[in-house]
Design a protein that fits this description.
Length: 370
């Protein structure tokens, strides 16, 4: 697929710049490419679907570019071409400031641009495409990573994420990852790709003029990794530590990992399948801790969990305290205290949730004025 000789589509090339993220973006790459990492806010209206892209790639490797272009033009023709043209045109009519891009800003976006021009629709494409914009995002992440940073630490169930989200400079890494960071933290829906996680983090850091407040995390949140440069900043940052009694933490854990989780499963999968998947996630999370818990303790917790599932409909989710409380006291709390001993770091304040929130708000104000 290539533009016709003498076409003037190069006149509508625009340079890759992060200001383009404020405009509607049309990604014409195949869905599999889009899923691996896109630009924030972009919509995927592909020139070729995954199967067509695979066929054209195979032809290119075996017969060269001309043969691949010929096959692409043949695959996306007739009714397929008409439908895709209408989808692009409909989106552009609704969002006239739209911009096209493909992987490197070459053949695919140029082809779409030419086809639209033949229909009387002018739209620019990004020079260098997704790759050039990705490079700008990485540069921005490297630029924005250093800066005044405060970590919120504390035992499991101290509502650290909630505290971070109350702050103007709060950066919710778990929210970006769509994962709560523990064995029980998986979201019912698939999380973002590593690239999309990095892009969301970049935009979040770019909006903050002063200091950033972040929950104390390990470098991996589920299957995603905090970018190395920003992780180094986090490792050197001072902390505040939230300390709350066990009963308070149990209520928080039950709300986050039981009430909210089962509601999400019901919403996305219906009551019957949602309940099955909810139970599977919680029992699977416990089993993944089996080596550290030991078989006797694991079996006791699994039995208590199963009884909680059976009583949940009649007595409510508070029945889960029977396994959540010993899991906190016998596993998560000792593990966290051990980490404090082996990885000490400057601590600016220790107190209950409200006092830590007020300290973080005052710290933010100082950073903003500085």
């Amino acid at each position: 697929m290539s533009p016709t000789p003498g076409s003037n589509t190069d006149a509508t090339l625009i340079d890759a710049d992060l200001s383009l993220l404020g405009r509607p973006l049309i990604d014409v790459r195949a869905p599999i490419e889009f899923a691996a990492g896109s630009l924030p806010g972009a919509i995927n209206l592909p020139l070729m679907d995954d199967d067509e892209r695979r066929e054209v790639g195979t032809r290119y490797r075996h017969a060269g570019q001309a043969a691949a272009v010929e096959l692409g033009n043949r695959l996306v023709s007739g009714e397929r071409r008409r439908q895709r043209l209408e989808a692009w045109a409909q989106h552009i009519r609704a969002a006239p400031e739209s911009v096209l891009y493909c992987f490197r800003g070459g053949m695919r976006s140029q082809t779409v641009q030419r086809w639209l021009a033949e229909q009387g629709i002018e739209i620019p494409r990004i020079r260098g495409g997704w790759k050039a914009m990705r490079n700008r995002m990485i540069e921005q992440l490297d630029t924005r990573s250093p800066g005044p940073t405060l970590l919120v630490a504390g035992l499991t169930g101290c509502a650290k994420t909630s505290l971070v989200n109350r702050l103007a400079g709060g950066v919710d890494l778990e929210g970006h990852a769509r994962h709560k960071g523990s064995a029980f933290g998986q979201h019912p829906l698939a999380g973002p790709s590593q690239i999309d996680f990095e892009h969301d983090l970049t935009l979040d850091l770019s909006r903050i003029a002063g200091g950033r407040v972040i929950e104390d995390e390990s470098q991996r949140i589920g299957r995603l990794a905090i970018p190395t440069g920003f992780w180094q900043v986090m490792k050197e940052a001072p902390t505040i530590r939230v300390e709350m009694p066990l009963a308070w933490r149990l209520e928080q854990i039950r709300r986050d990992y039981i009430d909210d989780l089962v509601a999400l499963y019901y919403r996305h999968y219906g009551d019957w399948l949602g309940e099955i998947l909810f139970r599977k996630q919680l029992s699977g999370a416990l089993k993944r801790l089996g080596k550290r818990l030991g078989s006797a303790r694991l079996n006791a917790l699994l039995d208590a969990q199963q009884r909680a599932f059976e009583r949940q409909a009649s007595t409510g989710t508070q029945a889960h305290d029977a396994w959540l409380a010993p899991l906190l006291k016998e596993y998560y709390d000792p593990m966290y205290r051990h980490q404090l001993e082996v990885r000490p770091r400057p601590t600016l304040h220790v107190g209950d949730w409200q006092s830590c929130l007020e300290f973080a708000q005052a710290w933010e104000q100082r950073q903003t004025h500085a």
